[in-house]
Amino acid sequence: MNFRDLTEIKQLRRKYHLNQKELAQRAEVSQSLIAKVEAGKVEPSYSKAKLIFEALDQLREKEEAKAKDIMNKKISFAEMGEPLKEIIKAMKSKGISQLPVLSKEKICGIITEGSILRKMLEQPEKSNLFKAEDVMEEAPPIVTLNSGFHTISVLLRDHPIVLVAERGDIKGIISKSDLLGRIE
């Protein structure tokens, strides 16, 4: 578990519209412990702090937006073997900067504007011959419809998109701009 700042407890409790007694019940600690921690009069043991933060995290997970609420249902794909010229044309016409790559109905990678530019700069003389598999990167992460905003935002720190699936069937796509559009 990451070490968290104890001052978060009061802020999060208020954010979730709980009084100290309600938080104490959810965390299975005493209300007086919550009051003393919030007042800065006592530092709880590691196990008590963990219980309090777990109770708050459960509330966050219940209230946060889910992948099914954020995702874009219109997904375009590139096919393995598809000429890069066609992929670039599709990206331009749809105003998108990345495409998941399919091979036999399975996600096998992703093509981004960055991966295209890198490959073209590495081998400009062959740029007319490139196919999807020549420029694709590793496949993006895939989450469930009920994955939360926090989980998705953590994944998008390191990946350009996140795909959303139900029982292996891709249902949507979430990009960084989709996520930023949800921030109030």
Structure description:
The protein starts with 6 loop residues before the first helix and ends with a helix. The protein is of the alpha/beta class and 184 residues long. The strands form two sheets. Strands 1-2-3 form a three-stranded mixed sheet. Strands 4-5-6 form a three-stranded mixed sheet. The model has no long low-confidence stretch (mean pLDDT 90). The protein is 47% helix and 17% strand. It is built from ten helices and six strands, in the order H-H-H-H-H-E-H-E-E-H-H-E-H-E-E-H. Helix 6 links the parallel strand 1 and strand 2. The protein folds into two domains: 57 residues, lambda repressor-like DNA-binding domains (434 Repressor (Amino-terminal Domain), Orthogonal Bundle); 113 residues, CBS-domain.
What's the layout of helices and strands?
Layout: H1 7-15, H2 20-27, H3 31-38, H4 46-63, H5 67-70, E1 78-79, H6 84-94, E2 98-103, E3 106-112, H7 113-122, H8 132-135, E4 142-144, H9 149-158, E5 161-166, E6 169-175, H10 176-180
Parallel strand pairs: 1-2, 4-5
Antiparallel strand pairs: 2-3, 5-6
Helix pairs in contact: 2-3, 2-4
- CATH-scheme architecture of the largest domain: Roll
User: Class of the largest domain in CATH?
Assistant: Alpha Beta
User: What gap, in angstroms, lies between the N and C termini?
Assistant: 28 Å
Give the structural class.
Answer: alpha/beta
Largest sheet: 3 strands, mixed
Number of domains: 2
Sketch the topology as an H/E string, one letter per element. HHHHHEHEEHHEHEEH
CATH topology of the largest domain: CBS-domain
Taken as a percent bin, the fraction of beta residues is: 15-25%
What is Rg? 23 Å
- Which ranges are low-confidence, i.e. pLDDT below 50, for 5 or more consecutive residues? none
Q: How much helicity do the residues have? A: 40-55%
Number of helical stretches of at least 4 residues: 10
Biggest sheet, spatial arrangement of strands: 1-2-3
**CATH homologous superfamily of the largest domain - what is it?**
CBS-domain
